[in-house]
Every structure is written in structure tokens, then in C-alpha cells.
Amino acid sequence: MTTTTNTTLTKAQFDVAYRLADSQGHTWATASGLRCTEESISIAEIRKNTESRNYRGRPYGLVSPYVDATCVVQHTGGRIEWSVYPNGSYTLRVHRYPYDAVLEYQSETGLFPSELIVSDHARERHAQVMIECLKALEVSIPARLTDLKDVGSAEILRRLACLGYIPSDLADDLEDAWATHTRVCDSRLI
User: Fold this and answer.
1) Helices 124-136 and 11-23: angle between axes, nearest 10 degrees
2) CB contact at 8 A, 104 and 92
3) pTM, whole model, 2 decimals?
4) By the 8 A CB rule, do 82 and 91 touch?
5) Measured between alpha carbons, how far is 153 from 175 in angstroms, rounded to an integer?
6) Torsion-angle region of residue 110: left (phi > 0), alpha (psi -120 to 50) or beta?
7) What is the pLDDT of residues 150-176, one digit of tens each?
């Protein structure tokens, strides 16, 4: 997956890719201080700028964005992936093993409004990753993301209560404490 150094990003594409990369700590964005002041910027210029700010004689981390053969900036790996198109529109996806994308956000394209797709397998931690990216892009956070809550812990408590390992009223109290992020001091926990 090498990108030719004569590949260029449009200003709109660079601005979106830069903000996303910065929000996720990619070296080419966090260490470079680079800005696109023209209509486009080359991958060679981004890489040169990043490499000039090296650590002990060599750059660390991602030194430039990856651009595929269709001139789309692609980031894959880890929990978040994105595609940024030359017109500045983008798609964000959050993954959860073993499922495919559990959250997907498609920006407004001019022809279509923005869209958020939420899978039944999405959890609060996945929403937080998506929210970080959307905040970096200064996008209003859809209510469906902030409403997403983890149900896994509540399910575990209910199963423990059903098996008789903990009293059912304690399971309810712990579930409430988990949901409201409050501390529980209860002699039944000792």
C-alpha cells in the first residue's frame, strides 16, 4: 500500500483528512503544523514536512495519509476507519470485532444529506470514537449517538442475579449506579 509522491489532495480533502488524523493522533497531523494554503497539496510535501520533524533521526508513526488509486484518502486499522473524497465529503466507520461497521456516518454530499447508520451491536465506547471525529470536523453530534448506552454490563448483572450469585435487588442497584456513574457502598458487596 504505497502512495506515489506525485499524488495530491485537494484543499477540501486535506482539511478533512488533517482534522481526522489530528483527532486520532497521527504523526503527519499532530507533529507537522502543516496547512494547505493552495488549491492542493502533494503527498511528497506532507511527507517531507513530517520527516523534517523527526525523532532521533527518523520519523515515527504515519508520515502521510494513504491515498488509493481513485484519489480517495483511506484510513483503516484499529476501531475507526474513514474515506475522504476530493470534494471534502467523507464516510466514517467504527468497527467492533467480529462484526463489520457498527456505526457509519456519511457526510452531506450536495446530492444527499448526511446519514448516520447505527447497528444493534454498537455500544457507548463506539459512539465516543465517532463523536471525537465529528467534533474534530465541527459537526453537530446526532442525538442517536449520545443516546447510545452500554447494555452489556446490565445484562451481566441480570444473568448473575438469575443464577443466584447476587441478589436481584443488588443487581438493580448496581445497574442504576453503572448507568448514572455513581458510587455504590453496600454491605452486600463485601
Assistant:
1) 140
2) yes
3) 0.72
4) yes
5) 8
6) left
7) 656 666 666 777 777 777 777 667 666
Rounded Cα distance, 146 and 21, in Å: 23
SS3 of the chain: the string is CCCCCCCEEEHHHHHHHHHHHHHCCCHHHHCCCCCCCCCEEEHHHHHHHHHCCCECCECCCCCCCEECCCCCEEECCCCEEEEECCCCCEEEEEEECCEEEEEEEECCCCCCCCEEEECCCCCHHHHHHHHHHHHHCCCCCCHHHHCCCCCHHHHHHHHHHHCCCCCHHHHHHHHHHHHHCCCCCCHHHC
Render pLDDT for 24-50 as a digit per residue (tens, 0 to 9): 888 888 876 788 888 999 999 998 888
Across 77-99, b (16+ Cβ under 10 Å) vs e yields eebbbbbbbbebbbbbbbbbeee
| Phi–psi pair at 98, nearest 5 degrees | -95, 15
Q: CA–CA separation, 74 vs 15, rounded Å?
A: 14
Bridge partners of residue 104, in order along the sequence: 93, 117
pLDDT value of position 89: 95
Cell of 99: 462484526
What cell does 88 get? 471534502
Q: How far apart are CA 27 and CA 59, in angstroms?
A: 9
